[in-house]
User: Which sequence fits this backbone?
């Protein structure tokens, strides 16, 4: 197939778009692959659509290889199934909702667990029908509060979501592993540098959960890995190793001290070390109490929640949100403090929280017998040697403190190293959350019902276009891996001479006859413009037909390495065919 740039619907740009934050956004727009329509909404132009379809083809091949079958659901979904699962409320403002002319409620589908479950229930009833694996590649919709980075975080996106249905947990494990292995093959074929990390399940529900992250400094997800073992996890999923408990007997009594002008951890530590208390204090000896308010889906009233973390750590709100999902979480405002005068800013302690019925969760490092310096619930006062389990008893633990490089790895092997990535895939063992909600059963061999167990497996197909671009570009433009490139060879006719044009046309035609996808630059523009566009568009192999034709040679350039090779014209087609075959 030959695509002629003289007729291709393409306009490249020399300047970066004003709203571009990351390389993929900048280059996909400049190279004419996508165009912004609205915040979080993009049109796919011909070259971009080719890349998207090439990725879809790889995904379909690997899904077929594990026996998963493709179906298609509507994007416009009725309210009732999502009410049954509870997610109509749980999603809150994150979905697009609408009413039809009769007043019935609908949403634009963010994900389709409910529909898959109902469909299988409607079609299958016997244990002999299982296991089942189904998937779709479809446009999804989420009302992102802050769409950004082009197609990396948009409101409308293409996703592959697949689901497994098994009779027992052993079957779920097999289906999960089949999908996990398929994802590894998919991302390997797409030329991605990625990691597999432990993750949280979020609104999806379920137990075991892993994310596939494309390594990129521009990624929104922070993950950590051990420097000695294979442990890796999204920051939201990191668990903190708890220290051993300590005895309560024989410990100093808690004492309240006047600590003027010490509303911060830094000022408190400085004051304590100048107060001649017989020992040196660090921020890690203090207990920082942060107040948030939470609201469960469907509720109007907010509830106060106290969170205690060692004073040398900041509270990571994303970890808090992950720990409390699906509840909505917000920091307190001045009005909240005014309405709750027992909350003394800068001096909040566990005592006032317990006395006023405020739930109090602490970092896992706060174990029985550990002593802390914390607020005494009075301006300019702190309490020293407040003992967990003697002087205060938390209501539980929460993973809320920031995770830092150098922290001990949760598996006990080495320390954590941090990096950033782009989520490109996620696999969940959902278990029976949705089959319970919709009473999805199979009649067993003994005529007794078997509750089906499920898995959910997603790939951000349109996001993959951006993730690949983030990893495969240079200062001149995109550098597509061959598996997803919009063409195999970019033939540049570099010259006005008729013989040069005829030579380029002839080579392009012969390549096309050999099954090579050719992008032919036959435009009436300068060679400089053509060379710049060839670099920007990013086809992996560039063939320049120009002045060398008079000497019987053409130039083959590797877009990734920049290596240039002169090849006799008579051998060009065979050379390129061999190159592509290898």
Assistant:
């Amino acid at each position: 197939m030959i695509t002629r740039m003289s007729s291709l619907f393409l306009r490249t740009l020399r300047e970066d778009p004003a709203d571009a934050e990351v390389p993929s956004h900048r280059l996909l727009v400049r190279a004419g692959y996508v165009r912004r329509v609205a915040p979080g909404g993009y049109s796919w132009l011909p070259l971009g659509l080719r890349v998207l379809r090439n990725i879809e083809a790889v995904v379909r091949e690997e899904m077929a290889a594990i026996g998963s079958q493709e179906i298609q659901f509507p994007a416009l979904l009725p309210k009732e199934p999502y009410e049954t699962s509870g997610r109509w409320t749980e999603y809150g403002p994150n979905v697009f909702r609408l009413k039809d002319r009769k007043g019935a409620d609908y949403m634009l589908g963010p994900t389709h667990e409910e529909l898959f479950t109902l469909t299988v229930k409607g079609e299958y009833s016997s244990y002999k029908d299982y296991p089942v694996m189904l998937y779709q590649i479809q446009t999804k919709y989420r009302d992102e509060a802050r769409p950004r980075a082009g197609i990396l975080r948009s409101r409308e996106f293409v996703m592959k979501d697949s689901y497994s249905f098994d009779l027992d947990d052993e079957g779920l494990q097999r289906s999960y592993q089949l999908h996990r292995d398929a994802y590894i093959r998919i991302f390997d074929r797409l030329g991605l540098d990625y990691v597999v990390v432990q993750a949280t399940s979020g609104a999806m529900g379920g137990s075991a959960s892993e994310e596939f992250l494309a390594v990129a400094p521009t990624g929104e997800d922070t993950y950590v890995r051990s420097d000695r073992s294979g442990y890796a996890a999204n920051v939201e999923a990191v668990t903190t190793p708890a220290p051993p408990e300590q005895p309560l007997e024989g410990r100093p009594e808690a004492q309240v001290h006047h600590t003027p002008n010490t509303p911060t951890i830094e000022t408190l530590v400085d004051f304590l070390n100048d107060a001649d208390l017989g020992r040196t204090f660090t921020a890690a000896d203090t207990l920082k109490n942060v107040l948030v308010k939470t609201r469960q889906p469907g509720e109007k009233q907010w509830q106060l929640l106290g969170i205690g973390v060692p004073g040398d750590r900041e509270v990571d709100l994303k970890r808090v949100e992950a720990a409390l999902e699906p509840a909505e979480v917000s920091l307190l405002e001045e009005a909240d403090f005014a309405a709750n005068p027992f909350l003394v800013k800068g001096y909040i302690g566990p005592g006032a929280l317990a006395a006023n019925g405020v739930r109090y969760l602490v970092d896992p490092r706060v174990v029985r017998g550990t002593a802390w310096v914390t607020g005494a619930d009075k301006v300019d006062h702190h309490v020293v040697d407040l003992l967990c389990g003697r002087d205060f008893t938390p209501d539980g633990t929460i993973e809320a403190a920031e995770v830092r490089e150098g922290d001990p790895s949760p598996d006990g092997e080495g320390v954590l190293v941090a990096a950033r990535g782009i989520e490109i895939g996620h696999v969940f063992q959902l278990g029976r959350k949705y089959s319970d909600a919709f009473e999805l059963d199979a009649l067993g061999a003994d005529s007794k019902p078997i509750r089906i167990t499920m898995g959910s497996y997603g790939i951000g197909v349109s996001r993959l276009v951006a993730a690949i671009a983030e990893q495969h570009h240079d200062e001149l433009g995109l550098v597509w891996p061959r598996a997803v490139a919009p063409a195999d060879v970019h033939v540049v006719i570099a010259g006005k001479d008729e013989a040069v044009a005829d030579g380029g046309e002839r080579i392009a035609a012969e390549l096309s006859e050999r099954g090579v996808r050719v992008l032919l630059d036959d435009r009436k523009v300068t060679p400089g413009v053509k060379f710049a566009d060839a670099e920007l568009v990013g086809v992996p192999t560039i063939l320049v037909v120009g002045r060398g034709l008079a000497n019987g040679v053409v130039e083959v350039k590797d877009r990734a390495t920049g290596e240039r090779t002169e090849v006799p014209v008579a051998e060009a087609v065979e050379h390129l065919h061999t190159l592509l075959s290898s």
